[in-house]
Predict the structure.
Amino acid sequence: MATKNFDYETFAQNLAAQAKDLVPQDFTDAQKQYVINTLGNFSLLSGKALAEDPNLNFNEDQAITITQIIAEWSFHKSVDIIRSGIPQQYWDGVMQKIAYTIFEIAKQTFSQGLPNDKILELIEHHVKKSYLEAITELKNKGAIDEGLMEFAATQSNMDKMAQEMQAQAAQQQAVQQDGNAQPVPVGGNIPANATAETIDFPKVDSKVLKLATVAMLFKKMNQDRVQTILNQFEPEDAESVIKFMKLPDLPERVGAQNALRCLQEIKMNLPKSTDLTPVKVVNKIKHFASKYTSTQLDTILAPERMGVKRLVFNALEGEYYDKMPPKVASIVASHLQNGV
């Protein structure tokens, strides 16, 4: 019988609205809208099928769970397909295969009454499998080359978000270990009539809070390393950090909530990480080399130093030339991509 009391239209709209705050900020407006629309459309279609199909026997909670699983994976894989560099005309085809897979596996596993953790494990396995099959099919059709296919296969927004959440949790735990006292203005005192509920964030300049937060971190670091870093600061800022480091009750004065907030702001303003890992360098070079025949590649590399040639030829074999530091190798890879 059809699922009763499942307002799938409103539920799909709510899921799409929630996704707006999670879409990567470096995406263009069109890319952001694609992610939101894809999630919303697949949620609506699956919710409608679950609610109206008389052959299904799911209750409201099961229908909600299945729809939410489809929404979450639609979000992650649409982000992956955009980051992959695969041309936009192929996005919908890949996403439709994934959504169909999730829906079918979810129906089967929920009907069998499997434990939730097993259901999620099976769905994840089949989502990744269908994604790889879809991009492999594009490669076999000649729509994309092997280098792009391999690069697309490395994309995993779910893993990326999980790593960020773990890092944030570890960061929060570290801050809490420094002290769970309520925040107090730097250089100020707790009002005599203040309670834990009434103490507000310090009413001081945000830069002061950030410098104090940096001082909290520096107190736990090797002091030679700290001095090296401070040498890069403006003299006044370095002096402030040193002053804060001398305060024995610095964690209590800053407050755990403020420290965490400042660390998050500092993290957001840091330069974006570059492709320095050996795997990313290898993938970048393979993608570059895939555009040329072996003869053309030999001609391009003829004026280059032996180390550059070794880097490229090792990458073509799927190996990293470890005689070259990743930072240098990444610069070389970018030079090859942009200079040819």
Observations:
- The chain has a mean pLDDT of 77.
